[in-house]
Each structure stands twice: as structure tokens, then as C-alpha cells.
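Quick one: DNA-3-methyladenine glycosylase from Ligilactobacillus aviarius, C-alpha cells please.
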Amino acid sequence: MRCSWAENGKQSMIDFHDHEWGKPQHDDQRLFELLSLMTFQAGLQWQLILNRRHVLKRVFNDFDVPSVAAMTEREIEEMVQVEQMIANRRKIRAVIHNARVLDQLHEKEILLDQIVWGLTKNQVVDHRWQCAEQIPSQNLLSVQLARQMKNYGFTFVGPKNMYAYLETVGVINDHLISCEWR
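--- reply ---
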């Protein structure tokens, strides 16, 4: 049995749940990719993001931080013309802005991995929920992360978005007790 949100989804949602969601991630490029997907998800269904993920990976050069950080306005205008692209210029600019912030942090030898996992001292927070209704949309940890990310200069990093991000990258394990993928 899977978490209920994945049971009702298409195969891409099931695959995401089974192979990615809640699996501890430490690679900075992968962490940046997932942060960027969260940026695009704001106000949209996660299924749409998964359906368009291949397009996002292509236009953002597989979420290579220096490459994204160097993107220009001309590239943004080209990007919005790509078939199936989520053509929200504000979100596109936010991803590029966040890449620039992360690129500057990398120059100071600060990794996104350190920021994301530092609040828990590299420990997974395992909630062991019995039912989906118990899962909050944010918590103290996501509020702290959102504040820290904003202080560094990141955008689209509110507490609810950061809670979903912490679940996705495995800092928070919100697989239900009954889920065989926990």
C-alpha cells in the first residue's frame, strides 16, 4: 500500500512516490532541481509538474546551477515559446535568480545540502503518521528553513513550499505508517 496521494495518481505520480519522494537527497544539483520544481508547482497540481518535468529539465540544462545562473532575458523569451513549457515568466525568473544565489553560495563553499540538512544535523525527521489528515502543511522546521532561505536571497521559499520540499528531499519522512515505501 502507498500513501493515498500517490494511489490516485498516474504512473508518473506513483513512480515519483515510490522512487523519489522522501528519499534522502544530498546532491546539490538534484536539490536545486527539486527546489526549482517546487517553484513551478506553486499554485499548480504536482501531476502537471511531473508531466512537464522533462521540458523543465531540458530548458534549464538539467538544472546545472552555473548554466541556469547565466541565463539571459533572451533565453527566457525563447523558453516561454517551448512547447509544453510552463510559460510563467515570474517562476522562470525565480529559478534563474535562485541559481544565481546558489552559485554565489557555492563560491563561498556553502552547499544547498548544508542549508537543507543543517537544521536537523543530517537526521531524518520521521513523523510516523497514521493517516494523511495528520500531515501538516507547514511546521517549525519549514518556517525556519523558509526564513533562512529568504535570508540567503532565495525566492518562492515560503513555509508551506519548504515543507513540501523537505518531504520531497527526505529531510521529513511523511510516508504513512501503512506505506510499504517508507
